[in-house]
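Technical appendix A lists one of the benchmark inputs used to test multi-chain prediction within the project. The record comprises two sequence entries:
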Amino acid sequence: NAGVTQTPKFQVLKTGQSMTLQCAQDMNHEYMSWYRQDPGMGLRLIHYSVGAGITDQGEVPNGYNVSRSTTEDFPLRLLSAAPSQTSVYFCASSWLSRSSAISGYTFGSGTRLTVV
Amino acid sequence: ELKVEQNPLFLSMQEGKNYTIYCNYSTTSDRLYWYRQDPGKSLESLFVLLSNGAVKQEGRLMASLDTKARLSTLHITAAVHDLSATYFCAVDQGDDMRFGAGTRLTVKP
């Protein structure tokens, strides 16, 4: 009964390096998304997916790529890390149907990323 | 574009007191969520408000939604230290949820 699993929990990158943040859910949720959390700004949507093979941009997509090859996994790729990408990243999932989305999103435990 | 504003952003309360956190949003939506986040932790869903006039209560917390005024409130009754956390409201916008900046609540003895 894992819910949403994110790895790693902590990561330090050098400017220009690339990496992938992993997100997996075992609830068969159609909808998955990535948010970044910065002090005083709440959570901002980076990318989201409504099903395998379907992704779309959110509010702050620049510098990030996503793919959704399976229902369970939704990795977030940083192409060339910049200090402005220092943040805490959360993955979330939910049922897609509006009538089923009655419990809000299920969030992962977060990845704290520092870019130096 | 949907904007979600919470106030206050910081709230320091004495135990036993009552207070209300406000969440205003800028465009029509009939679905609003409240989440709690403890320091260094993930977000936990508290309430889902699905229609105008909806009211939900859990322990010392009560949330309500007025879709006509585009306003939700989270009322805290007789605060206790365990309620210290950051509280976020979030508004459904179709394929995504827009979050307020959060209210950091500290309950002091």
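The two ends of chain A are 36 Å apart (CA to CA). The CA atoms of residues 15 and 82 of chain A lie 5 Å apart. Comparable benchmark entries are summarised in Table A2.
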